[in-house]
Amino acid sequence: MHWRSPVPLLRLTKAAAVSAVMVAAALAVPLIADGEPLEDGSLPCHPTGAQSRYLVLFTEVTSPEGASHEMTLACGSTVAYYPEIAVGVATSGDPRFAERIGRDRAFSTEAVEAASGRHGRQAAPVTTGGGDDTAVDRSGEQWDMDLIKAGAAHAVSTGSKGVLVGVLDSGIDATHPDLAHAVDPSKSAGCVSGKADQSPQAWAPTTSVHGTHVAGIIAAADDGLGITGVAPGVRLASVKVVDDDGTVRPESVVCGLMWAAANGMAVANNSYFVDPWPLTCDRGEEHVVFEAVRRAADHATSRGVLTVAAASNEERDLASPSGQTAGPGGQWRTLDSSCRVLPAGLRGVVAVSAVGPDRVKAGYSAYGLGVIDVTAPGGEQSSGRCVLSTVPGGYAQVCGTSMAAPHVSGVAALLASTHPGASPQQLMRLLTSQATSIACPTDYDLDGTGGQDAYCSGYAPFNSFYGHGMVDALAAVTP
Fold it and tell me: The pTM is what?
């Protein structure tokens, strides 16, 4: 089951709220030994020259002015504030910013990375052969589309231009012949700073092919050349949340989900997990990340966005997180039932596992009873059969749950086209009810050593490996 802790929030009038926030902010500044308080009650700032970006939680009633004032008192500069969810983004050169504003309210992935000497965590996708010939029909190599009946679906519908799918990723190459028709620049934005930037260079790919590969799976053109996506008739928005070193910071994800909510996206694809931990726990300093992303995902759902997310390539049982794991700085963290892959582990988010060509869970794919909602093709590394899709300049085969998720987003886009006005909850019910059940494998010995590499629990209609089963594109376009 997905777990969520409700946060009771005090409701005040706007004027009273702003006043209360300002007074509380001034009184809450800790009297640490870095100088005498100034006339307004704040302490002198001591910037070190190294700027770090912070995610900051506020109470529901906090106005933009109140949030900015509070971050200024803590020696920070406001980058963005999202009043709909009371989450802010700030930068500060003072290493005590989080201590000043409250460590239960502020967190910096950059500061954690700087302290550990580690930058860039997201593993590079496994890529096999490709080719740069965009003038050749490669659809015969798309075994993945056959598994979800995409070809048969296209004979009925390729999706509606009125449906917009957000690709929250490393950017989409909008010049690729298979994607030029689909990408909508007016709905695209870069979010790596935590604040949306619509300039083309902000949402274009720079160091990673990942976002372009994901985009092709969703909506590559059905023109007899190159490859064809699941829903080639829909539009795409490039929402860049992965920075150049491969890090997916929580403030970028918050920005991306808020951008999707504000721009009428029917589906938001998230082929990543939020840094700096593979699983984020709803406790201590990690609560800031967990709560901010939860608020953003819930807001997106309330604004009509179905959020689809990869379950991750962690190979673990997400329903029973336990034991110890190393954090970014090498510190050991104890996992418990509050720990989730973000955003896949959140309520209302469609969590996707990956299968290979044989319809068996890929060895790398995470799983978990009550966590995984559906499954889709992601490829299997051991067989060398990954998913062929677009990359800047051509095509490549890539394996991962990152590839499974956009198959589901594509089917969800077909559903949104067939059922205009359907809510995210209705789309999720259609996705799961139309999925083709896959029973637990009787023998899951992938390496041939005689032992089980993972244990599947549940029964055919709903289990820990495949959730409700394989998504079905043909069913999605059938009235």
Answer: 0.89
